[in-house]
Design brief:
The complex is a heterotrimer.
Chain A: H1 16-21, H2 26-56, E1 61-62, E2 66-67, H3 70-89, H4 91-106, H5 114-133, H6 164-193, H7 206-237, E3 248-249, E4 252-253, H8 261-295, H9 302-315, H10 331-359, H11 368-385, H12 387-390, H13 393-399, H14 403-433, H15 439-465, H16 485-515
Helix pairs in contact in A: 2-3, 2-4, 2-5, 2-16, 3-4, 4-6, 4-7, 5-6, 6-7, 7-8, 7-9, 8-10, 8-11, 8-14, 9-10, 10-11, 11-14, 11-15, 14-15, 15-16
Chain B: H1 41-75, E1 77-80, E2 85-88, H2 97-132, H3 146-170, H4 179-210, H5 215-245
Antiparallel strand pairs in B: 1-2
Helix pairs in contact in B: 1-4, 1-5, 2-3, 2-5, 3-4, 4-5
Chain C: H1 2-22, H2 35-66, H3 83-113, E1 121-128, E2 131-136, H4 157-161, E3 174-176, E4 178-182, E5 187-193, E6 198-202, E7 207-211, E8 217-221, E9 227-233, E10 245-251, H5 253-267
Parallel strand pairs in C: 1-5, 4-10
Antiparallel strand pairs in C: 1-2, 2-3, 5-8, 6-7, 6-9, 9-10
Helix pairs in contact in C: 1-2, 2-3
Classes of the chains: A mainly alpha, B mainly alpha, C alpha+beta.
């Protein structure tokens, strides 16, 4: 196949604007995505602290924000979820690290379509600005939750924030869909067409497999969300009735008839379920990469890991109905979705066994990236095992829409996926910035965050079993919830401590960029292609040379090899893969 | 294989410009080219076609989801509050069939002209190295403007669709009149938006010739735009079929 | 660091498991016929998942300590995996997960596939921003007509439902804000919503079902103990979601009949 050197024919850019603002270099674009997500995650965490404080002290008047009314709580909740899911979890692992390292790890000088890449970042940026604008318009941000169920989201008088704020929310998401589709197209084409000589599909690092399958999921899912959003905008503004039947709001008969609220749920969750796999698969790829590197052992069962990622991606499109067991959907359909959902637990379990198998018999080094990879496995186990409860419709009866669900998805998306991000940051920081992050502060950050997030989200399972519904702005109205307030208070304090600890990470990040000890090209003694480049990599990644690959990605501790790692470009005479 | 000594990327000379070209371009043959740094148009074309196919998968998903919503809504009984029972309330839309058939014919012809434009420029790109030999001329440098014809027919289709919407309104079917009419407008407008995007790309392809880019580069743009255009035609056939046979 | 990791992971596992085993915060006391089945399936799931949880976290903590780099002495087993083990643990996982699901499905079937008994108590439950209303059909056993344009939530009860008082079947309909049910008799619920999606959730009855505008949803459950049970809304419905609650009073059959008769009398 053609090497990209002959296709990728733009000279290195000059000038600040071309180099840093409208750059076509996947590395710069990757950093742009990463820093966008960093801003978004702090906005999202701030919103969550306001929420937790209000739940415990509903009448408190806070500095800067004042009193938080019930509807304000709901708009904080909506924006927290939307910003975190889209602008953090879909942006950073894929758009951030994927953009930066996918081309390098396959031996390419850039993405297949650099201009499209640049456009996809700036479109994401526009989407982010649009959603933040919702806070500042009359009525404020919408209160219908990140899931935006109709008719609540489709009626402009169903609550404060449901006018312009809701329209901005939908528009932002629609723009985000387009940005994601552009990115997905780029990732898939790049992986299929730009691999260097010798880089067969089955020699690609598991990070690349994860980004590739994630892109396929995005490609097929975001179009459906876009459709759903367009229909919602039409119902809200042009009088159609896709989602809204005959309804009466506060005594006023609305002009809709015949629509189906369940249609929104089907369309949304057809996207929504693959979306959560989009959020976690890159983290799984990073975990696999790091567990192998820092155990000095090949990944246990590389082929099985690849098939498992594919199976998760494929089955991920067949389980959306498990969000709808209580929705009024046919119970027979519910049974079918339930079986598929249990099935998807199987490849997830395979991956977990294989991670454990990788560490077993290895020689574990405990630098910070590895701590986060280990933390990822622990959190994935915890969050994953509450899945089989929810996957059974009969157990979903007491647990649906309770804090149990909130605990389940936060442990996986809100913590494990973020640990994947932390792991990637500490791991690839030396390559991106030529310096090491501080190990001691990395460990401090890890320990506080691991224990802190468990303290926040594990108790939510107990609260859910006790019947605490989700999206309640306060617990003052129901007698059976009173005895749960102390545990809720504990969670709030844990959240304040854990969020505060994230400043350690940010300070470490920025301080190390300028003052960290200098790093060599391969500080972790790793095998994949990013570690053969200069540090940071030049504009075309490999300095005019195209790498030739002779080995698989995880050849550690090969018997008879001169070192305990064989790089993918080492001569073919060494090692067996 | 590394062919450059400096670590900075290549500065591409414009090739295929007829007469005064510096080197014969590396194209079509795939592989490493001859290491002379000129763009591998064959590989670029393959890559863009791959990208298009992938992108069309996402466009397909948009219309799959709209179709699914359509079919479900059409068969869905809705609650009639007077009788407290479920009744079907689907009102078939009185489609302006003649006008839509005319539009379909326009789009079909535009697909034909787009294909002719695509083949024409493929030939021109194949013959470009011959033309760069000093002293050689193949005559007829300018062929029939198939690209322009496609643009006109495409614009004609969009105008026809606009007229169809006006006709629907005259017949009392507006966007919010009924579920069925909502879907008619939604499906045709979404298709029209994507077609308009295709027109913009064709305009870009036409403009590129004015900007004196090499014919191989133009060929890649026209080729991919033409395939997109064919997809838009097939998509229209599908939508028309759905709206008519499942009315 | 290996030892520290082992300690942290094992401590987290121990504390989490402790609170599950001690049932410090647990499912509320159940008082319906489905309670034993649902609670049994729940217990089965949490024991099996609990074993997997402890085993996986335990192994993780153990391995990171056991296989820590101890300098030159540490030997690494170069291996790309073990296909036999893969097949075995994949099969076991599949059997566990799918088996668990199939075990719970008869309960789901009996709760949701079968319609209500012929002698069940018919009650219509309507959710609207932000209250629950309960309608009993009265002696004629028929629910009277309601109409959207007649709905007036500020007037409460009949007017909130938009009851058409000219309909003869509506004359004996009783509408209340508190739900009364006779013990040990199945209730035939008709769930409706007027504006947005709500969800009728009675934790102690192990019952939950969304109320969806545009749908009439039929469900049933059977209370088995006399008492007062809180009803919560379990689907985000607007700013009053947290305070949209009701009360279910399960009483003896005689008390139920007396209550209903009183309500009927009030209407005259």
């Amino acid at each position: 196949m053609a090497t990209s050197a002959t296709i990728h024919s733009h000279a290195a850019p000059q000038g600040f604007i071309r180099k840093y603002i409208f750059s076509l270099d996947h590395k710069v674009i990757g950093l742009q995505y990463y820093f966008l997500a960093l801003v978004a995650v702090f906005v999202g965490m701030f919103l969550s602290i306001l929420m937790r404080v209000h739940m415990i002290w509903p009448t408190a008047v806070l500095p800067l924000v004042g009193e938080i009314k019930p509807e304000t709580y709901l708009s904080l909740l909506t924006m927290h979820g939307t910003i975190m899911v889209f602008f953090v979890l879909t942006t950073a692992p894929q758009g951030g690290f994927g953009n930066y390292f996918l081309p390098i790890q396959i031996g390419a000088p850039d993405m297949a379509f650099p201009v499209l890449n640049m456009l996809s970042f700036w479109t994401t940026f526009v989407a982010f600005v649009t959603i933040l604008a919702a806070f500042f318009v009359t009525g404020g941000a919408p209160l219908h939750g990140w899931t935006g169920y109709a008719p609540l989201s489709a009626l402009t008088n169903s609550g404060p924030g449901e006018q312009l704020g809701a329209d901005l929310w939908i528009t932002s998401i629609a723009i985000f869909c387009i940005a994601s589709l552009m990115g997905a197209l780029n990732f898939i084409t790049t992986t299929l067409d730009l691999r260097a000589k010798g880089m067969t599909m089955m020699r690609m690092p598991l990070t690349v497999w994860a980004w590739f399958i994630t892109a396929i999921l995005g490609l097929l899912a975001f179009g459906v969300l876009l459709s759903a959003g367009i229909l919602l905008l039409l119902d809200r503004n042009l009088g159609t009735s896709f989602y809204v039947p005959l309804v009466v709001v506060n005594g006023q008969v609305m002009g809709h008839k015949g629509g189906s609220p369940l249609l929104w749920q089907h369309l949304f969750w057809f996207f929504g379920h693959p979306e959560v796999y989009i959020a976690i698969l890159p983290g799984m790829g990073v975990a696999s990469q790091l567990l192998s590197t820092f155990s000095r052992k090949p990944i246990f069962g590389y082929k099985a890991m690849v098939y498992a990622i594919m199976a998760i991606g494929f089955l991920g499109f067949m389980v959306w109905g498990h969000h709808m067991f209580m929705s009024g959907m046919s119970p027979y359909t519910a049974f079918a979705f339930s079986l598929m959902t249990m099935a998807i637990g199987v490849p997830s379990a395979i991956k977990t066994f294989n991670w454990l198998g990788t560490i077993h018999g290895g020689r574990v080094r405990f630098q910070t990236p590895m701590l986060y990879a280990i933390g990822f496995v622990s959190l994935f186990v915890s969050g994953g095992l509450s899945g089989p409860f929810l996957a059974q419709p009969v157990l979903d009866i007491p647990l649906h829409d309770t804090a149990f669900v909130v605990g389940h998805f936060h442990l996986i998306m809100g913590v494990a996926a973020i640990f994947g991000m932390f792991a990637g940051t500490y791991y690839w920081f030396p390559k991106m910035f030529g310096r090491m992050m501080n190990e001691t502060w990395g460990r401090v950050h890890f320990v506080i965050t691991l224990i802190g997030t468990y303290c926040i989200f594990m108790p939510m399972h107990y609260l859910g079993m006790a019947g605490q519904p989700r999206r309640y702005s306060q617990f003052t109205e129901l007698a059976y919830l009173q005895h749960l307030i102390p545990l809720n208070t504990f969670i709030t304090y844990a959240a304040i401590v854990t969020v505060s600890a994230q400043f350690i990470f940010v300070i470490n990040l920025f301080w190390s960029m300028f003052k960290g000890p200098k790093a060599n090209d391969n500080p972790w003694e790793a095998t994949t292609l990013e570690w053969i480049t200069a540090t940071p990599p030049p504009h075309d990644n490999f300095g005019g040379h195209t790498p030739v690959v002779n080995h698989g990605p995880y050849e550690y501790s090969v018997p008879g090899a001169p070192r305990d790692y064989v790089m993918q470009t080492d001569p073919a005479t060494v090692a067996s893969h | 294989m590394a062919t450059l000594s400096s670590p900075v990327t290549i500065d591409v000379p414009k090739t295929g410009q007829g007469g005064g070209g510096t080197r014969p371009p590396a194209y079509g043959g795939g592989g490493d080219g001859r290491g002379d740094g000129s763009p591998d148009y064959g590989a670029r074309l393959r890559r863009l076609r791959l990208g298009l196919a992938i992108g069309l998968a996402s466009v397909t998903m948009i219309f799959v989801s709209l179709t699914s919503a359509y079919i479900v809504r059409r068969g869905l009984p809705t609650l009639d509050e007077r009788t407290n029972t479920y009744v079907r309330d689907w009102i078939p839309v009185d489609l302006p069939i003649t006008l839509l058939l005319v539009n379909t014919a326009l789009l079909l012809m535009s697909s034909v002209s787009a294909e002719l434009a695509r083949r024409q420029i493929t030939r021109q790109a194949a013959l470009a190295p011959v033309r760069s030999i000093p002293g050689v001329s193949l005559g007829e440098e300018k062929g029939f403007p198939w690209l322009g014809v496609t643009l006109v027919l495409g614009a004609g289709f969009l105008t026809g669709q606009w007229m169809a919407w006006r006709e629907l309104a005259d017949r009392g079917f507006y966007l919010a009149t009924s579920a069925s009419s909502s879907f008619v407008y939604l499906l045709t407008a979404t298709h029209a938006a994507h077609l308009a995007g295709g027109i913009l790309v064709l305009l870009y392809a036409a403009a590129v010739s004015v900007l004196h880019k090499p014919v191989e580069a133009r060929r890649v743009v026209v080729d991919v735009a033409a395939w997109y255009w064919h997809f838009m035609f097939l998509l229209w056939l599908y939508i028309f079929g759905l709206l008519w046979f499942m009315r | 660091m290996g030892l520290a990791l082992l300690a942290i992971i094992w401590l987290i596992t121990f504390v989490s498991t402790y609170f599950f085993v001690a049932q410090t915060w647990w499912l509320p006391h159940g008082a319906s016929t489905s309670t034993p089945w649902i609670d049994h399936q729940f217990a089965l799931t949490y024991v099996l998942m609990g074993i997997v949880f402890v085993a996986a976290q335990g192994a993780l903590g153990l391995f990171v300590w056991q296989y820590r780099d101890q300098g030159k002495a540490t030997k690494v087993t170069y291996s790309h995996g073990n296909t036999r083990m893969e097949v075995i643990w994949t099969a076991l996982t599949a059997i566990l997960f799918i088996g668990l699901n199939l075990m719970g499905s008869p309960i789901w079937a009996s709760e949701r596939f079968a319609p209500a008994d012929a002698d069940s108590v018919p009650v219509e439950v309507t959710g609207m921003q932000f209250a629950w209303y309960f309608r009993y059909p009265g002696a004629d056993g028929k629910f009277g007509r309601t109409e959207a344009k007649l709905m007036d939530p500020s007037a409460g009860n009949e007017a909130a439902l938009g009851l058409d008082t000219t309909d003869p079947a509506a004359k004996d309909d009783v509408v209340t804000g508190t739900m009364y049910l006779p013990v040990n008799r199945q209730v035939n619920l008709t769930l409706r919503a007027v504006d947005v999606i709500h969800s009728f959730f009675v934790p102690q009855m192990r019952f939950k079902q969304d109320a969806v505008p545009g749908l009439i949803i039929h469900m049933h459950f059977t209370p088995t103990e006399i008492g007062d049970y809180e009803i919560a809304c379990a689907e985000l419905c607007g700013l009053g979601h947290y305070k949209m609650h009701g009360m279910l009073k399960v009483v003896s059959q005689e008390d139920f009949d007396k209550w209903l008769a009183t309500k009927e009398a009030e209407k005259q």
